[in-house]
């Protein structure tokens, strides 16, 4: 089996497999290493889809959290990057459809770092029957992070993620300078990224 993998997959993909095995066994450094490898390409792919830096950062957090939470179910039939990008694209498409954004500006497929084609299934504009379940699942996922944030960030994050307010609306709601809101949300997002990559128990 190992020989077959050596023939099928690149050295990077095989290293990913080793990191996944270690992560599933509870090695937080393996989670961090996987995020370090793929955070930037996932973010840039999502940014091309939504054309909004803040949304792209939020969706990147969600994508890694969903992937890491399901890592024990990953099968080595294809590369980790293929699997991760599919999770990220599907999550982003759900967001786009929910927001009814006309921002999807990427081909229906792309090639990952091992030369494998990854399909992006963009369905019609009708809402998926499971959208409410997906929304609830995302809310529950983010709530895990929010509860562990310092209190001064919790209300900001809830307004952003659960009430889905814009930065300007949050500033108005809290009677706070827009720059302060942006800076604090940026810091909260960094803390949530740290939770995803460093603490398996968070997800």
From TrEMBL:
Top-level taxonomic group:
Bacteria
Query: By its UniProt entry, which Pfam families does this protein fall under?
Result: Sigma70_r2, Sigma70_r4_2
A single Gene Ontology biological process assigned to it is: DNA-templated transcription initiation
Alphabetical keyword list: Sigma factor, Transcription, Transcription regulation
Using the record's annotation, list all stretches that form the RNA polymerase sigma factor 70 region 4 type domain.
141-191
Q: Which residues cross the membrane?
A: none
Q: Where is the RNA polymerase sigma-70 region domain?
A: 34-100
Gene Ontology terms, MF aspect = DNA binding; sigma factor activity
Similarity field: Belongs to the sigma-70 factor family. ECF subfamily.
Name of the protein: Sigma-70 family RNA polymerase sigma factor
What is the species listed in this Swiss-Prot or TrEMBL entry?
Answer: Dawidia cretensis
The organism's taxonomy opens as: Bacteria, Pseudomonadati, Bacteroidota, Cytophagia, Cytophagales
């Amino acid at each position: 089996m190992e020989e077959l993998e050596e023939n099928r997959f690149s050295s990077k993909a095989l290293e990913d497999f080793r990191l996944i095995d270690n992560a599933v066994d509870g090695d937080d450094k393996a989670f961090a290493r996987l995020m370090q490898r793929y955070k930037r390409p996932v973010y840039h792919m999502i940014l091309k889809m939504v054309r909004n830096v803040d949304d792209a950062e939020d969706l990147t957090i969600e994508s890694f959290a969903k992937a890491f939470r399901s890592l024990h179910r990953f099968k080595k039939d294809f590369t980790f990057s293929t699997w991760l990008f599919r999770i990220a694209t599907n999550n982003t498409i759900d967001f786009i459809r929910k927001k009814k954004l006309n921002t999807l500006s990427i081909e229906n497929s792309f090639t990952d770092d091992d030369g494998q084609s990854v399909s992006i299934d963009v369905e019609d504009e009708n809402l998926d029957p499971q959208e409410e379940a997906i929304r609830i699942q995302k809310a529950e996922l983010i709530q895990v992070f929010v509860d562990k944030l310092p209190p001064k960030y919790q209300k900001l994050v809830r307004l952003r993620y659960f009430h889905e307010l814009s930065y300007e609306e949050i500033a108005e709601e809290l009677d706070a300078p827009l720059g302060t809101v942006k800076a604090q949300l940026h810091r909260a997002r960094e803390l949530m990224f740290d939770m995803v990559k460093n603490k398996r128990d968070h997800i």
